[in-house]
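note to self — DONT lose this again. spent like an hour looking for the file last time. sequence + predicted structure for the chain T wanted, 452 res
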Amino acid sequence: MISIVEVQETNKMIREMNLDVRTITMGISLMDCAHADMRVFNQNVYDKITRSAEKLVKTGEDLERQFGVPIVNKRISVTPISIAAGAVHTDTYVPVAEVLDKAAKEVGVNFIGGFSALVQKGCTTGDRILIESIPEALAVTERVCSSVNVGSSRSGINMDAVKLMGDIILQTAERTKERDSIGCAKLVVFCNAVEDNPFMAGAFHGVGERECVINVGVSGPGVIKRALEEVKGHDFETLCETIKRTAFKVTRVGQLVAQEASKRLGVPFGIIDLSLAPTPLIGDSIAEIFQVMGLEEAGAPGTTAALAILNDNVKKGGVMASSYVGGLSGAFIPVSEDHGMIQAVQRGALTLEKLEAMTCVCSVGLDMIAIPGSTSKETIAGIIADEAAIGMVNNKTTAVRVIPVIGKEVGEMVEFGGLLGYAPVMAVNKFDCSGFVNRGGRIPAPIHSFKN
């Protein structure tokens, strides 16, 4: 049982350290919406989402007032549309995306995730239709987010899908070039995607989930930073213990909010995702945590070790605070959403290659990185393949959310707005990888995948 006293203990964290519940995400199954007729399917989807999430936003706002905890986003994730719409006779799922957008606006959520396909081993007809619909779908909608899982530790990497996604990302950038190619900020390519992730743009409601659940994502980089300032100069054991204790307190806040939201909505509680997701605000930065840990800038030698410490101890603290910690819990390193990361890029301390090394130990991967609009589709596919290989071999979730900004080159700034922030366009290795990417087929799973 969690008492209000535990939340009151965190008031200082909220007022001074940017602690927030980053999102309450309602996962909704669309499996019972299946129909061969697009119009009937879309009506079923709209009706189910608006019925299920009718009180989601109001409940979040009520909990904010009651507990004094900012709840930044209220979101929805749905069954991957390539599965839910698999029976529809069509050659495009863009109308489905428009209905998802309409339903999201009707209930007032910030984003809706699940315009997704799971193709780690191969593509069905529905998967292919969905992937080819992504550029237009993200151009004509505001709140729809898309993801494609191209690999897993058990299946290997679908290089045909990787190659296709290089092209799809460039098409999406071109379709939204008047807005700095922002469509790509709503598109994630995964390896080992999880079914209960409440964070966008990669959230979807997995087929192993219940009919409807409440997942909560909590974020507190500023809280961790302030706690570490109090033990500056101490040894690594003290450092790790401080992170664990602080992560425990932060997770308890999310646990209380999740339980109360579940009770009021009459929807089962799913998981707490404790992810240190930064914002562009000063004091809410992963890079600033690195500096408190003793690094001059993110990207300096020792950065990967510092991130490993942070990620591991956040998880250790979180799992002691809740019986159901899931999602992508750990530390995110999105460049555009972290002013410290942006500064490190501008100073030359942080490169794409260093970020890739850091993804071996972080919670996700190459996230919210602006690259030149002239980058080839083969190079983007190569970046995806590298990141998927890290996830496959290390049995962890990795992802790529890169934004080739049409008309912009290295060093120019791009403004996305809101939590998406702003970013300098980063340099990409210009050596050709097309001969590798164009081989096609599937990279086999590593030997450790055979565990049965």
